[in-house]
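Journal club side-thread
Mid-discussion, someone asked how the predicted structure for our own chain would compare to the paper's figures. Pasting it here so we can look after the session.
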Amino acid sequence: RGIDAIVECLQRTWPRAKELDGRALRRVTRAARLMEAYDGQCLPEKEQFCVFLDGRVDPPYKWGEAVTICTIRSMKAEFLSLRDTDVEDVLAVHRETERRRAFDTLKNVPLFRRWSKSKVHKICQMLTFHYLRRGDRVVRQGEATDNVYFLLDGSCLISRHRVERGKNSWPTRVSKKHPVVWQSVRKVRRSKKAIGRLGAGDTYGEQGLMKEAPCGETVTCTEPSTLVALNKRAFRDVLDKARKAHEQAQRDPRVNTSGHPSADELLAAVAAIDNPDNAG
């Protein structure tokens, strides 16, 4: 309950809270401190964020308000305090934990299953994290996407929208004296069909890695989910540089290819892109 109260307080008052997901914000509570200040002391200090809790200060603040500047006017006042250095230490641990989660996922997807750990670690440095809520859309059918997505937790629905256009026509006339006139009404019917789901450890978009094409489906989160995105162009650059390095090494054995994916790893990646269901 105490952690939840601090999280709620930070969400209301701390500007950086908007940049963080719920998991990271709960970690930041470890850096929060209950601080006492005394008569004549000025707050906040350099690189410090404070929330007023109790006491008398000038100018006056209400309980739970973020303090921009104040002077203590009572024997003692209480604040919730966050120091930038403590926050950065906590967030550094959080980022490393998230990278490890991403590594565990990527190491088991067909695209990287046969890659060495060191090569997968390098790919993890290229990832961007997305923390989405229920109902948030990952990709929309018909729109291009620059990324391949790997689901770390949560679930998503894959659906396909279809638009059917038609026309209804029928004969009509005002009276027997008038000629028959055909009237028509154009009709548009839209339908949505679920064609699959994504769970933790699943991948979306790997078959579009080597080409630029619009998405054939819409992917929507059905619960709070964490996804990591790998930029297609950046990954293609990794593959292209590795391929060129191996071609040079065939002509000149002195060329060092240790920093690139091996030839077997390149073949495994291409096989997974062409046929992810059978890649192994």
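Post-session note: The first strand starts at residue 33 and ends at 38.
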